[in-house]
Write a structure and sequence with these properties.
Blueprint: H1 7-18, H2 21-30, E1 35-36, H3 37-44, H4 48-60, E2 65-69, E3 72-76, H5 84-95, H6 101-128, H7 132-140, H8 143-150, E4 158-162, H9 168-173, E5 179-184, H10 187-196, E6 203-207, E7 220-226, H11 235-245, E8 246-257, H12 263-268, H13 278-288, E9 290-297, E10 309-316, H14 320-325
Parallel strand pairs: 4-5, 4-7, 5-6, 7-8
Antiparallel strand pairs: 1-3, 2-3, 8-10, 9-10
Length: about 325
């Protein structure tokens, strides 16, 4: 706030700013919208020289601010940044314009202008729809999708990646949860995983057989099995172990192959099973100790060469003891 002998000068300047009908109209438009000079000219139906002159005065008196966007400059009023006396003066002026027919006309033209903006945006996406995924990936990559999904996981969870391989998923999850444990039976894979996660202090990587997971009962809030079950000799045993280490009410996520007849593919990747049917997977999850299971096929990604996949999710059954203790 201006102090001392300059205080009346500031008040007079603020009052002069609001004394002109055109400046009042501009401020009413800019209080809730960010608009360019051309848009303001269209709305208030005045020449650019007139609008620009008034905007300069309003900017000099700190009623509005601006930023450059492409080849134009956008203006707006930030009410909270006005000095308290100026803000009170503006609120009084705004109150007195409610019944002003000119302002109502301005608002109608503003609404049309904003609709034109929306239509322009819709036209862009209509034209870009066929290539949007490719364009978005080229502009922004695809990691933000995984980051957004990971951010949905409760941050106090412990998550286990069973068959973690080189630790890529472990490293992906680590910033979002309290702890990540990666387990694999391959020393070579674990060496790479340990190197990849060496600087992450909430990660553990362990060597272990997935049919006898080296963790205590109820160790984690969630467990994941991504493209692992086709490699193990006893999938049902792995699912039972998975249910054992997940807390009652915890979650399981499984991605693996749907049934296929590509024997050459199975031999090439040294897989022991040619995929799992959705009904068979639901039955195995139920028998392993899971509830509320869903199994759905995933749409194959463009240019992928392997068999189609499924996504299964389930919740660990609550023990009888746990249920009784709550009664």
């Amino acid at each position: 706030m201006v102090k001392g002998s300059t205080q009346p000068d500031a008040l007079v300047a603020w009052m002069e700013s609001l004394a002109d009908p055109t400046r009042l109209r501009l401020l009413l438009l800019l209080e809730r919208n960010e608009l360019g000079v051309a848009e303001l000219c269209e709305i208030v139906q005045l020449p650019q020289s007139t609008v620009s002159r008034h905007l300069k005065l309003l900017a000099d008196q700190h009623w509005v601010c601006s930023r450059r966007h492409a080849t134009t400059r956008l203006y707006r009023m930030i009410l909270d940044e006005l000095k308290p006396p100026a803000r009170r003066l503006w609120l009084l002026a705004r109150e007195q314009t409610d019944a002003w027919p000119t302002v109502r006309q301005d608002q109608l033209r503003l609404a049309r202008r904003l609709r034109d903006r929306e239509n322009a945006s819709q036209s862009f996406f209509a034209g870009a729809a066929a290539q949007w995924d490719k364009l978005r990936a080229e502009l922004y990559g695809d990691r933000f999708v995984a980051a957004a999904c990971c951010a949905l996981i409760p941050p106090d969870w412990t998550v286990v990646d069973l068959g973690c391989g080189t630790g890529s998923l472990v490293a992906e999850l680590a910033p979002y949860v309290r702890q990540v444990i990666g387990i694999d039976n391959s020393a070579a894979m674990l060496k790479t995983a340990a190197r990849r996660t060496a600087e992450l202090n909430n990660v553990r990587v362990l060597r272990g057989d997935l049919q006898a997971i080296p963790l205590e009962n109820g160790t984690c809030d969630a467990a994941m099995l991504l493209l692992v079950l086709t490699y193990v000799s006893q999938p049902a045993a792995v699912l039972r172990e998975m249910a054992r280490i997940v807390k009652p009410g915890g979650r399981a996520v499984i991605v693996d192959l749907l049934p296929h007849d590509r024997d050459d593919f199975r031999r090439q990747l040294n897989q022991q099973h040619a995929g799992f049917g959705t009904e068979a997977m639901r039955d195995m999850l139920q028998e392993a100790g899971f509830d509320q299971s869903t199994v759905r096929p995933l749409t194959p990604q463009v240019n992928t060469k392997g068999p189609a996949l499924f996504l299964a999710t389930a919740i660990t059954k609550k023990s009888t003891e746990t249920e009784q203790s709550k009664q």
